[in-house]
Amino acid sequence: MTTSYPVATQGDPPVAVIALSGQIDRSALAALNEAYDTVASSSTQSVLLDFHDVDYINSTGIALIVGILGRARAENRSVLATGLTEHYQHIFAITRLSDFIAVYPDVSSALSGATSS
Amino acid sequence: MNVHDESNWASKVERLEVSDELAHAGFNIAGKRVAGAQQGFGKLWQRRYSIDLGTTVTPEQVVADWKQRFATYWPDGATFHVALTGLQPGTVSPIAIASGAPGLTVSTGILVLYMDDISFTFMCPEGHMFAGWITFGAEEDAIGATVADVKILIRTSDPIYELGWPVMKGKEDAFWSATLVNLAKDHGITDVPVEETTSCVDRKRLWHNWTNVRHNSGLRSAWHTATTPFRSLRT
Question: Does residue A92 lie within any of the structural domains?
């Protein structure tokens, strides 16, 4: 089955929301890059990674997220995250991803965060 | 989300602690924080080295052996110190690497960030040549052969290491190729080429991290070596 992650634009200023799902591991590479390509072709200044429907992230998945973070920062986009369980918030802290990706409890607070940042 | 993988990850540590048995080798990493790719300085590189091990071993067997005998696969000139407890998530292991300068060994180390049956990941500490992650793994390819690989996502840590990147890149190529060849040999496989791919994920340097130079493991190792006679006099 081919994985794809829907991208929607929400909020004002507009934020590109990538709805991630399933397992974020090496199998997610193509879908994640495809989703970010959609974001890159838009004028949004922020991208929100929505992890609500994700059930597993391994270290390769973390590396994929870092790759997205690198691409976004190269294009002066901020990266936000929502839907992370306490465990994965902890992983973001260990890996120090949370130094660069603001984590919010839900989409609406993330959109508000994007507005205020 | 489920939590079946929680034990695969290291616990959060603010500062690295080196076990007493390895303290002599870990002087440069004790008390340091880990450094992800965004805490580094140079361009962000994604690199992969891979080797085809054929169909006689499974990915799980390869990775189990790799974890157990990790240090023995390293080429000459580099030492990976492993505590008696072996490699586990959260393990801090000192590393000593010949610098190329006479008498100078660069002391640094790693934190074992993640481990599962088919992969394990190290994270670099402050002061290491690189900031980021390195993942060792194996998987079956489309025809059922086991392919072992080393995947690296790094920036150089500071401006000094960034200046040395053209040289270090070549050394990295030789180092990880030799490691994979040794891994293959240990599984009875010889004369198999190592493939390498490199892509630049972010060409921007993180100039605000130039102060990382204060942690530079090369400079600190040189100082440690130079002052060894004086420390001996004091003890």
Answer: yes
